[in-house]
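[Backbone geometry]
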Amino acid sequence: MLEKFYDENDELIALVIGSRYGKDGVEFFTPGNFSQQLGYMYHQKGTVIPPHIHNRVNREVQLTQEVLLVRKGRVKVDLYDSKRTFIANTVLEAGDVILLASGGHGFTMLEPTEMIEVKQGPYVGDNDKTRFTPSTDR
């Protein structure tokens, strides 16, 4: 399963890679200009990825993008556009991954849930996010 959520202007709000998603090879789901790159890889036994280092490159990040991996449990994710208008919700289960690319989001744990979060740093505390009241449409 691969699911994408867009706002009314076709801006990607979120991308979900379900735990059952699979295919041979390497596929990146994000465009090259995203500050968070998300891809899927399946390699046969014996495949070698040569050792490498990543070069220091100056980058300017304008927007925090997050990737969440659900390790255990279930969580409902509410998705909003940049104007705080509710778009949709989706339920993530163990093994699912979501890229929160733009807009807003909120979470409701449907059972005890364990997640791993990856995002750009450095974290700037209260300047990093604006909280708002959830939509009654959700």
Q: What stands out?
A: The chain has a mean pLDDT of 94. The CA atoms of residues 72 and 94 lie 5 Å apart.
